[in-house]
Amino acid sequence: MKAFLILEDGNVFTGTSIGSTREVVSEIVFNTSMTGYLEVLTDPSYAGQAVVMTYPLIGNYGITPDMESARPWPDGYIVRELSRMPSNFRCEGTIQDFLVKYDIPGIAGIDTRALTKILREKGTMNGMITTNENYNIEEIIPRLKAYTTGNVVDKVTCTEKRVLKKQANTASPKKVALLDLGAKNNIADSLSKRGCDVTIYPAHTTAEEILAANPDGIMLSNGPGDPKECKEIIAEIRKLYESDTPIFAICLGHQLMALATGADTHKMKYGHRGGNHPVKDLETNRVYISSQNHGYVVDTDKLDPEVAKPAFVNVNDGTNEGLSYVGKKIFTVQFHPEACPGPQDSAYLFDRFIEMMS
Predict the structure, then answer these.
(1) Which is nearest to 141 in space by CA: 3, 51, 14, 9?
(2) Which residue out of 254, 277, 338, 340 is catalytically annotated?
(3) CB-based contact 162:199 (threshold 8 Å)
(4) SS3 label, residue 158
(5) Checking CA distances to 15, which of 112, 217, 225, 303 falls within 20 to 30 Å?
(6) Are residues 84 and 20 in the same domain?
(7) Is 266 one of the annotated active-site residues of the chain?
């Protein structure tokens, strides 16, 4: 069946329908990872977006147990070529069946390189995936321009508190409260493997409830959408900041902590999404290759130097990749030290967090 990707600038790509055949409007973003498509699909940070995979062949090892959450989250999936016959000893199914199961529409057979160049040159834009060959582009364009992702954190966060027991045999485990803003599984796993007892809290949990449990440390997770949409959560994070509890934050958590302490954020032209982004640790001047997935960034020129200092910087474009908070046991990063998919270069940051709690 034919499918069409219609962008808000009027560009139309024609390909083949994969997954669900329902029509969807979403923000179109691209990911440059060469492997790890399943972890990308199951990353809650993609809620409200349709993902373009720049690597030309997707699905060659099928669906494996490497999921970062219980289900896929993108609104749509866009690939150059979809492998119909995956081959891997861990394979449990195909991408096609996976997309159908979770009612996610997609399109294959388009020039993803040309599409990515458009998004890089003009910036991230909205689009529609449809199988309707009689579409009216003059009616569709206003719909695309009016679309916003809204507050998607509420869509992806857990519904109730749960405890994840430590995987390492530690005599006196550290108690970590993980605020689930759309957390990938490997964040909690990275802590539990280091001997922590992790309690996962829904995004709208009050600071009072978290602090009443007397955690040794607090983890603010990754998540989707515009951080400024999370006004109630920002207010609670301000209370966590004012406590003396050590805090480590990743991605959306990093942005929310910045907003909670008076800094500002803005939307990037096309964001950072992939597994090959170099970041420099400003304390050691060492460069690490990182996994990233974000479309917003903290404004360092509006940062109060008495509150926080830049700790990491993106080597490619100079944007902020992390903050260290003055007089507080708090540090935050824009990239993903837990990776999945991606390099393990910066996993040492979890060890730094453990030391901070000690």
Answers:
(1) 9
(2) 338
(3) yes
(4) coil
(5) 225
(6) yes
(7) no
pLDDT at 127: 98
User: Per-residue pLDDT tens for 177-227?
Assistant: 999 999 999 999 999 999 999 999 999 999 999 999 999 999 999 999 999
Flag whether pLDDT at 172 surpasses 80.
no
Using the Cα atoms of residue 70, residue 75, residue 80 and residue 85 in order, give the sign of their dihedral.
positive
Statement to judge: residues 195 and 334 lie in one domain: yes
Question: Do 262 and 290 fall into the same domain?
Answer: yes
- Whether residue 160 is found in the same domain as residue 29: no
Cα–Cα distance, 127 to 332 (Å, whole number)? 32
Q: Which of 39, 196, 336, 340 is catalytic?
A: 336
Catalytic residue among 251, 277, 294, 340: 251
Whether residue 268 is found in the same domain as residue 339: yes
Domain extent, residue 94, equals 2-146
CATH number of residue 77's parent domain: 3.50.30.20
Q: Is the pLDDT of residue 168 over 80?
A: no
pLDDT of 124 over the 80 cut: yes
Question: Are 35 and 175 within one domain?
Answer: no
Nearest to 297 by CA among 285, 288, 310: 310
Q: How many domains does the chain have?
A: 2
- Boundary (domain end) residue, out of 146, 168, 190: 146
Q: Are residues 140 and 176 in the same domain?
A: no
Contacts with 141 (C-beta within 8 Å, 6 or more apart), sequence order: 8, 10
pLDDT at 164: 87
How far apart (Å, rounded) are the C-alpha atoms in residues 253 and 127? 27
pLDDT tens per residue, range 7-20: 999 999 999 999 99
Q: How far apart are CA 314 and CA 320, in angstroms?
A: 6
Helix or strand or coil: residue 212?
helix
254 is catalytic: no
Alpha-carbon gap, residue 246 to 354, rounded angstroms: 9
